[in-house]
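Practice problem: predict the structure.
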Amino acid sequence: MLRLLCRNDVEWRAARVHLTTASPLLQHNLLKLLACPNDALLNYPMKLADPLVDYLLSEQPTMQALDFLLSKFIAAPVPVLASRSVSTNWADLILPEPLHNTLQRLSQQVQQTRDLNLIEPGNRDRPGTLVLMAGAAGTGKTIAAEAIAHALDVPLWEVDLSRIDPADYWTLLQEAKAKTPAVLLIRSAQLWLGRSTALTQAEIHRFLDQRQRLPAITLLTAAFKQSVQLSWQRRMDQVLEFPLPSRGDRLKLWQQAFSDEIPLDRQIDWEQVAQMQLTGGELGDRPQRNAELYCLR
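Answer:
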């Protein structure tokens, strides 16, 4: 894309910043980088948001229509910090077995720490757990957080930093400190733990230190592990990488993606369907959003 749109090195250097994880294009999901194993970031395929594609394919694309479309992405109201009950269990989590087992052990360790803290408050100086979960969108990071919250029988508190005005970061920190959620999911954590952030390292350090002093778990996600500074990676209790689903995992994801209300032909060749290179998030979304299209009769 850079070779196509840029005429010289100056334009190339100026355009590269629009493809970083901190750019508005990626923060507001107007553009997605599709991770490819063993490939460099600048070689990742790119995908425009479907509404943008529809706009580009329209008969008469106007600037007014584009402005309206962008306003829907950027100006959508988003709560600073929200909680929700979850019902996801470990059976819903389709991941490589080693990663699946690691997450379950992690949940058990957190539960043991919480139980011990009820019996002997203050027994440990740092009972909290920090986990960095790295992987492309749709590889199971949110589902993993839901499964952990469900196993601990607590609500999941979550926030997406890419949809929060940096001017509100300090308010977000104070709200998280006041509510002390047992399971906190922070999406797009590279906006705090990357090379450039609106917060100082001291502010982030104090926040993580406060979370570690609670019998709680803090899950921070990023699309790419490399977008988080090594110093912050070393601060984590666990750094977990979520790969793209294998063909076998895609087969399981396809088979559980359809609700009972969607009629399916018994002769569907699921092995052939599983060849499509999609993430778990895409598999889970598309059948429900386009039921009439995916009624494979």
